Amino acid sequence: MSIKKVQVGNVNCGADELFLISGPCVIEEESIMMKTAEKIKEVSEKLNIPTIYKSSFMKDNRSSVDYYMGPGIDEGLRILEKVKTEFGFPVLTDVHYPDQVEAAAEVCDVIQIPAYLVMQTTLAVASGKTGKAVNLKHAQFLAPENMSKPVAKIESTGNENILLTERGYAFGYNDLIVDPRSFYHMRETGYPVIFDVTHSIRKYGIPSADPNGGAKQYLKTLARAGVASGVDGLFVETHPCPSEALCDAASQLDMSELEEFLKPLIELHEVEVKWR
């Protein structure tokens, strides 16, 4: 079926060219954010893959009140704006509450609604009203065909700049499963589909700083399955030293591995496009 094209800065989401969303899970020290952005820029230009820089100013779904949640909206948006200015990336961040949306939209090109919150009507409507692109993360509890419901909430505001992201489905027992049928169902909405491969390997119930909190051995296999299934973009969280990351330490990709990780996926995407 025909997929709507969603323009995000210089990234044409839904075109025949694979695009990338990448950056640290949560905003940490400014030096780490800039170092990561510099490396992503290098890889993006070398591989000619259009890229959106992603990092969260707040992670409100950490499993303990003792875990790092981010620097907050003011400092977080300041750093994202600096990344955008210095490296020319469009930028993406999460929002958790309707009163965060307006400020985020002043800086960010994409407003992301986290998976746990994707059915929150007031959050969806507030995000849609900004006119910015809205990335809807597939809820772990929601059948993929039912992603049409939050899509309709964004459309009700007159905004059709919508992206959908798969990040695994929870069957309980602290494991996530990626079913390639979900890519099909979400593309049936008519909007670009992204595969968040790094979040899909998280092991719930295990702290993200624990090496067992992410099944990195599956990253390449899952990424190739998603690209072969016809996704339009890849979501890959990356960090200069994942083991020291303040969030999702066990699942983020070391930024030194990003280029080699992407190369075969870009080639595979070119083959998949020919077979459409």
TrEMBL record:
Xref: Gene3D superfamilies: Aldolase class I
State the compartments where it is located: Cytoplasm
Top-level class of the enzyme under EC nomenclature: transferase
Keyword Transferase among UniProt keywords:
yes
Species of origin: Parvicella tangerina
Report the principal subcellular site. cytoplasm
Q: In which pathway does it act?
A: Bacterial outer membrane biogenesis; lipopolysaccharide biosynthesis; Carbohydrate biosynthesis; 3-deoxy-D-manno-octulosonate biosynthesis; 3-deoxy-D-manno-octulosonate from D-ribulose 5-phosphate: step 2/3
* PANTHER family on file: PHOSPHO-2-DEHYDRO-3-DEOXYHEPTONATE ALDOLASE
**A single GO cellular-component term on record:** cytoplasm
State the name under which the record lists this protein. 3-deoxy-8-phosphooctulonate synthase
Organism superkingdom: Bacteria
Pfam (any one): DAHP_synth_1
Hey, which family's this protein in?
Belongs to the KdsA family.
Gene name of the encoded protein? kdsA_1
Please provide the record's keywords in A-Z order. Cytoplasm, Transferase
Q: Name one GO molecular function term.
A: 3-deoxy-8-phosphooctulonate synthase activity
